[in-house]
Amino acid sequence: MTKLSVNVNKIALLRNSRNLGIPSVVRAADIALRAGAHGITVHPRPDARHIRASDVHDLSQLLKQWPDAEFNIEGNPFEPPLLELADAVRPQQCTLVPDDPAAFTSDHGWDLARHGDRLRPVIAGLQDLGVRVSLFMDPLPEAMIIAAAIGADRVELYTEPYAAAFGTAEEVATVARYAEAARSAMAAGLEVNAGHDLSQANLPLFLSAVPGLAEVSIGHALIADALELGLAAAVEAYLRAMDRTKP
Prior knowledge:
This protein is an alpha/beta fold and 247 residues long. The protein has helices spanning 9-15, 25-34, 53-63, 82-89, 112-128, 141-149, 160-165, 171-187, 203-209, 220-229, 231-243, and strands at 3-7, 39-42, 70-75, 93-96, 132-137, 154-158, 191-195, 213-218. The chain has a single domain, classed as TIM Barrel (Alpha-Beta Barrel). The chain is built from 11 helices and 8 strands. An 8-stranded parallel barrel has the order 1-2-3-4-5-6-7-8, surrounded by 7 helices. Helix 2 runs parallel beside helix 3 (53-63) and helix 6 runs parallel beside helix 8 (171-187). The protein is globular, with a radius of gyration of 17 Å. The relative contact order is 0.14.
């Protein structure tokens, strides 16, 4: 079964626009989990423009009440505060993303030919803390072999190109590349996650075409849908969309 992790960055972004403490990131995460989400994802950045270090600690306390749920912290391991937070709260998963601090959003996967040797000790250090490590990757089958060789447990396929191709003439060829990358990852002994610009509309095709997906992380589209449906109903709608992919 593919699990749904709800990214609550946009809740924090809205909260940070005022000094009132609302909406509550912790309350939003609790609503998502009560609605059936399998985990919570955050991506703290050096400028704290959405998720703050205090949110990570608060969410870690919340997730202790949900022993079957997963806490996934994303970020660039070579920029603060990712590794410090991972050491402090010991999330179930840490997704390493090659973000520039000034990046608007994540927009590419790791170039492991350039950064693999530097990532290797970071991966081992996180695993020594009991944290599963996933690498944010473009859908390149040959790169999956390197990801496994440097010690990663999982890869997260960067799905913005798929979302852009969805509903166009490029859809079939694009989703085929993701399927090939997922098969290569699994053959190398990796588990496979996916995330970025996945939505209710494009999620069923992706899940039905790409084998072995352990988890999808969804934030922007789900929170946008929550403005119309309510957060609990939006989570339930995504779970139904995922369920429609079952044979």
